[in-house]
Write a structure and sequence with these properties.
With 510 residues, the protein is an alpha/beta fold. Helix content is 31%, strand content 24%. Bound molecules: 1,4-dihydronicotinamide adenine dinucleotide and 2-deoxy-glucitol-6-phosphate.
């Protein structure tokens, strides 16, 4: 920086004019007027028109007490989420054969990641350095340790038994949390067994009965009970992957008629409708098509928010990084063969071919935007890559998922480049921090308005955490790791009144 071949520092930096951003803050909100700049390209893709739109971004500052209602409370993700948060809340340490361990929130973007918010310049030397801030400090956000946690499960075991069944967390930790965990009992579930695998029946002992409308009303009453304890409720689906309902429900009238006539909708739709009618955020952590066009429209009509679908925790996230790396470097991925096996109840449920199909679709689309971004590597008609996704159930490995991927790429002068990866990890220890992020950031996004409008009905900005992001522009979905992270981080910065820089470093180099 500032170098000219000698050791002397060239004082080239000229403090510029103040950038055009207005920020004001009251006791209740942060208001930012931001000049949003981007480029419009004409149809022929030959002319580039700079555009500047003034956007007014207002964030409510008051952090509510958040009630998290998990659908699938006593599953592996649900139990790991609850026990992990309680361990952090009570700062419980535990013994293992490799020493004493203490709790953390590693793997959570909102709790353990930072964003580069600007530069610092040393007045004496003229040297620049980056300034990074914890994501959690950019705007006022809920703390996971303050969550009030509850929810539903079709299996009625208490949370201590659920944690033991999951075999994810150490008994020396769970025993210390036992009295509190034992007090957490799941509410009876709304279930439509036709949409999950037949092999799940031995788990079912805690379900509601009634028509679809009666089930929705009961779920609404459960949500209202949580509302009496907290300021804001979030419902998060972390229950079994369902089969997709096809054809999709197109209109609100059709949706309402099906509910009236008791046409046995998938349970995820019932929970989602209950959340919409109670105007609480519903997040879909599984791949099934809960967000039918009718459901999205219903949410819009109620001013409710949705986010989904399918937590992006390990193998798929890695794939989006590999897309950035390879295609972003001008290397043509020609095949991606992804295989994984796992032995938890999720793996068992995914043995059903139609449940597996939901997951396969969700896992298979993540390279599409990277492929579309490069017509040199993927000209029209040659944009197919062999992309295979295989999932096998191997009970012996429990929650410790094995993921093997092979990326075959075409390189310089028709050479071949093959990269293989092998990942072993507790699936739920990857998913729980992402569930935390979806709740913390989903709640925050529900307090942000742009030009007076909410960011809904779909919280597209949560795409970073989701394998198959549902967005307000269904034709414009970003999967790239780098871009998704940047979009989210930039929004948070803008809402806080910090201009994300354009990345050229011109001020420093010239
Ligand atoms: P799990 O099978 O251990 O837990 C699911 C729970 O949902 C079970 O306790 C089951 O009894 C309950 N359940 C099923 N239907 C229900 C209903 N209608 N109402 C209430 N409870 C119901 O599965 P796990 O590992 O916790 O995963 C949960 C979901 O998250 C799955 O759909 C999985 O595909 C998805 N997921 C998991 C990821 C991970 O890394 N662990 C990542 C991406 C998605
Ligand atoms: C087998 O793939 C089970 C799945 O539920 C995954 O573990 C989960 O979807 C996580 O997927 P990924 O691709 O983000 O690791």
């Amino acid at each position: 920086l500032g170098g000219n071949g000698s050791n002397a520092v060239t004082p080239r930096f000229q403090p510029g004019q103040i950038a055009p951003l207005q920020r004001s803050e009251t006791a209740s909100e942060i208001q930012v007027v931001y000049q949003h700049r981007f480029t419009l390209v004409d149809d022929a893709e030959t002319s580039y028109q700079p555009v500047c739109q003034e956007k007014r971004v207002v964030t409510q500052k008051l952090v509510p007490k958040v009630g998290v209602m998990l659908v699938g409370l006593t599953g592996n993700n649900g139990s790991t989420f609850v026990a992990g948060i309680l361990a952090n809340k009570h700062k419980v340490s535990w013994e293992t054969r490799t020493g004493t361990k203490s709790p953390n929130f590693f793997g959570s973007f909102s709790q353990s990641a930072t964003a580069r918010v600007g530069f610092k310049r040393d007045e004496k030397t003229g040297a620049f350095s980056d300034v990074h801030k914890p994501i959690s400090e950019i705007l006022p956000m809920a703390r996971p340790v303050d969550f009030v946690m509850g929810g539903w499960d079709m299996s009625g075991v208490n949370m201590y038994q659920a944690c033991k069944r999951a075999q994810v967390l150490e008994p020396t930790l769970l025993d210390q949390l036992k009295p509190e965990l034992e007090r957490i009992i799941p509410l009876p579930a709304a279930l439509n067994p036709d949409f999950i695998a037949g092999n799940q029946t031995d788990r079912v002992d805690n379900v509601l009965s009634g028509t679809d409308r009666e089930l929705i009303e009961q779920l609404r009453s459960d949500i209202r009970a949580m509302k009496t304890l907290v300021d804001k409720v979030v419902v998060l689906w972390t229950a079994n992957t369902e089969k997709c309902l096809k054809p999709e429900i197109e209109t609100v009238e059709d949706l309402q008629e099906r509910i009236r006539e008791g046409k046995a909708l998938p349970a995820s739709v019932l929970y989602c409708v209950a959340a919409i009618e109670e105007q609480v955020l519903f997040i879909n952590g599984s791949p099934q098509n809960t967000f039918h066009p009718a459901v999205i429209e219903y949410a819009r009509q109620h001013g409710s928010l949705l986010a989904g679908s399918d937590f992006k925790s390990g193998q798929t996230r890695f794939k989006t990084v590999m897309g950035d790396f390879l295609i972003g470097s001008g290397i043509r991925i020609s095949a991606c063969a992804s295989y994984n096996h796992l032995g938890n109840n999720d793996g068992r449920n995914l043995q059903d071919p139609m449940c597996f199909d939901s997951k396969k679709n969700s896992k298979s689309g993540v390279l599409n935007d990277a492929i579309r971004s490069n017509a040199i590597l993927y000209p029209e008609g040659k944009d197919h890559i062999d992309h295979e996704v295989v999932i096998k159930y191997v009970p012996a490995v429990g929650d410790s998922k094995r993921a093997l991927d092979e990326y075959t790429s075409d390189i310089f002068m028709n050479g071949r480049n093959t990269i293989s990866s092998y990942n072993v990890c507790e699936d739920s220890l990857l998913a729980a921090p992402i569930m935390i992020d979806l709740v913390v950031l989903g709640e925050l996004l529900s307090r942000i308005k742009v030009d007076g409008n909410s960011l809904g009905p779909l919280l597209s900005y949560l795409s970073f955490f989701l394998k198959a992001p549902d967005t307000n522009q269904p034709n414009y979905v970003v999967n790239s790791f780098t871009r998704q992270r940047q979009i989210l981080t930039s929004l948070l910065m803008v809402a806080a009144g910090i201009i994300p820089d354009d990345g050229t470093l011109l001020f420093a180099h010239f």
